[in-house]
Design a protein that fits this description.
Layout: E1 2-6, E2 24-26, H1 51-64, H2 74-85, H3 99-105, H4 107-115, H5 123-145, H6 171-189, H7 194-204, H8 210-229, E3 234-237, E4 260-263, E5 268-272, E6 283-287, E7 290-291, H9 297-309, E8 315-320, E9 323-328, E10 344-350, E11 353-359, H10 367-381, E12 386-390, H11 399-407, E13 418-420, E14 423-425, E15 443-447, H12 454-464, E16 470-472, E17 480-486, E18 492-501, E19 518-519, H13 571-591
Helix pairs in contact: 1-8, 2-3, 2-4, 2-8, 5-6, 5-8, 10-11, 11-12
């Protein structure tokens, strides 16, 4: 089991665009699992579950949530099911596919069979499986008998032919394109293309029995089920477990062969961040003995991580400049240390001195060390008066990173009370870094509507201890905690919301967010918030865990700027610093009355 905090469902589909930017958070306990190289070697086959396995996993999810879930919303569950069932836009998501209509019609029965503790053979899922078989078999016939051809233009084999979140292309049109590209590939590559084409076709148009399709539908249903009862939850099979985690938040992320990929007809195109010997634009045809054609992107990402880590034999074949090229990926990649990016630091004139603006895009596991390094480096250059942490747009990250960062400003203080289902959880403490790393001067944070989760922890804890004010807009309001579990049938892993946390003074965060000390509009329109998420846990107010000794020392307050602020590379920051200046004047006046 591993602990995590999630800003949003990181790899679930059909989620609002706003939530896609809210980062997964986890403690260092989860990094071993989050390396992106765990699980079975991907095989490109659709994940499957038996009726009993699916119902067991669903029951496990219900039992381990922070609060008992309400009855399943059948229409939402059906929508997620149709989406998870179809990795290509061929089986259920395409506008001409009849499967979603069948799923919608049977939604209540499907939900009941998965949600119930009564004996069941999942007959409704068998009906859906029969419909999927009839549809996919008809596409397979079309693929085999298609007589169109795109010509011998090698560039068509590098095209990303599949759509993203929203599918608008008819499946029969896509089938025709795949058939045409198969002829082009065979024409250009000769016999070496035959096996790759056949493997991809078997993934796009599987020749399965109705019972086998039922198991595919049940696997997709479990993913949809967990997502339906927990907006931050997910289940993944062993071949795709790496999709549950964001390993780049680790202090030493695992090596990767690429940053961004897309699916072509018979391979995986590297869009950006290719690691030598690959280059951007290469189409990976095989990697570590696995054909990439028709490989779901979740599995492709895991395969790339396994190859880069040295856990998989890393021979590859690629399509480059109209030719099939063999490559060998050096196993030494797994020993190359990943250098974390330095924090962005800007000195801003403020009154007779300067303040240090440190931009934090996400809360990495090593944020405490990175922040200490940035401040020490700045102090070795010349002094500054105060520190401003820019948390705008920061969707979260690693809670241990937040605790270590808070220790620089408030060493050793009790932090966040937590509640599990039916039980409280002892609050952890901020770290106690070396004396030279600690900052005793003024500190403040900039926040907006996209400041979430571990970033809210940073701003909220500084406020709770009156250590430093926040300036900006009402934050996202993510105050729930996720944990990772192996599922009870041993075929995958789950991420579930199992705890709630509050600020050190007991103030709720979940669905409430943080009201900044001094309001200032940064001009961006507010997007989604935790309070708008269906099935998100309700707000929880915790106990005040602060101890008197941590409240006795008054904070270092911000001195007046005399109206002299800036220039700033972002003019909104200068405006926020002026708002800080005016707000602190009001506080000082009130204290002297």
């Amino acid at each position: 089991m591993s602990v995590a905090l999630l800003g949003a469902a990181a790899v679930t589909r059909q989620m609002p665009t706003q939530l896609a930017d809210v980062r997964v958070e986890r403690s260092s306990k989860a990094i071993d699992l989050a390396s992106g190289v765990l699980g079975a070697l991907p095989n490109g086959q659709a994940p499957v579950l038996s009726c009993e396995q699916a119902r067991t996993i669903a029951a496990q999810a219900r039992e381990q949530l922070v609060s008992a879930p309400a009855a399943l919303n059948a229409p939402a569950f059906a929508l997620y099911l149709g989406d998870w069932l179809d990795p290509y836009g061929l089986w259920s998501a395409a506008p001409d596919a009849p499967i979603q209509a069948t799923i919608d019609h049977l939604a209540a029965d499907l939900a009941t069979e998965l949600d119930s503790s009564q004996p069941s053979q999942c007959g409704s899922f068998l009906k859906v499986g029969g419909e999927v078989k009839r549809w996919v078999d008809s596409l397979a016939v079309q693929y085999e008998t298609a007589n169109t051809w795109a010509g011998a233009d090698p560039s068509v084999l590098s095209l990303s032919v599949f759509e993203g979140e929203k599918v608008t292309r008819p499946a029969r049109d896509l089938t025709q394109t795949l058939a045409s590209h198969a002829k082009t590939f065979r024409q250009l590559a000769g016999p070496s293309a035959d096996g790759l084409v056949a493997t991809a076709a078997a993934r796009y148009f599987p020749n399965l029995t109705v019972e086998a399709w039922q198991r595919v539908v049940l696997s997709a249903a479990v993913r949809a089920y967990v997502q339906s009862i927990d907006p931050h939850g997910a289940w993944s099979p062993r071949e795709e477990e790496g999709s549950l985690y964001e390993s780049e938040l680790a202090a030493t992320p695992p090596p990767r062969l690429w940053e961004r990929i897309s699916a072509t007809s018979f391979g995986i195109r590297i869009e950006s961040g290719a690691l030598s010997p690959f280059i951007d634009g290469d189409v990976v045809l095989t990697l570590a003995g696995v054909s990439a054609g028709g490989l779901p992107l979740e599995q492709a990402e895991v395969l790339g991580s396994q190859a880069a880590s040295g856990r998989a034999r890393a021979a590859a074949t690629i399509w480059r400049e109209g030719k099939v090229v063999a490559l060998e990926v050096p196993l030494a990649l797994s020993t190359v240390p990943t250098v974390p990016p330095e924090l962005e630091v800007e000195r801003i004139p403020y009154g007779s001195g300067e303040v240090l603006l440190i931009t934090i895009h996400d809360v990495r596991e090593d944020l405490g060390q990175s922040l200490a390094t940035a401040m020490l480096k700045a102090r070795s250059d010349r002094s500054f008066f105060g520190v401003v942490l820019d948390l705008r747009g920061n969707g979260g990250g690693d809670p241990d990173g937040a605790s270590d960062a808070l220790g620089l400003f408030m060493p050793g203080v009790p932090l966040f009370p937590m509640r599990r289902r039916g039980a409280s959880v002892p609050a952890e403490h901020a770290s106690v870094p070396p004396f030279v790393d600690q900052w005793r001067g003024p500190v403040a944070t900039l926040v907006d509507a996209e400041t979430a989760s571990a970033a809210e922890m940073l701003a909220g804890a500084l406020m709770a201890y009156d250590r430093g004010p926040s300036i900006g807009e009402h934050t996202f309001g993510k105050g729930c905690v996720q944990e990772y579990f192996p599922d009870q049938v041993g075929v995958g892993s789950m991420r579930l919301t199992t705890m709630l946390y509050a600020m050190p003074d007991g103030r709720a965060v979940q669905k409430v967010g943080i009201h900044p000390t001094f309001a200032f509009s940064f001009g961006a329109s507010a997007g989604e918030s935790e309070a708008q998420l269906g099935r998100a846990p309700e707000a929880w107010t915790g106990p005040d865990v602060r101890v008197p000794s941590s409240l006795r020392t008054p904070r270092s307050r911000w001195k007046g700027s005399g109206g002299k602020v800036g220039p700033c590379s972002d003019q909104a920051v200068c405006g926020a610093l002026m708002a800080l200046d005016e707000g602190e004047k009001r506080v000082a006046t009130a204290l002297h009355r």
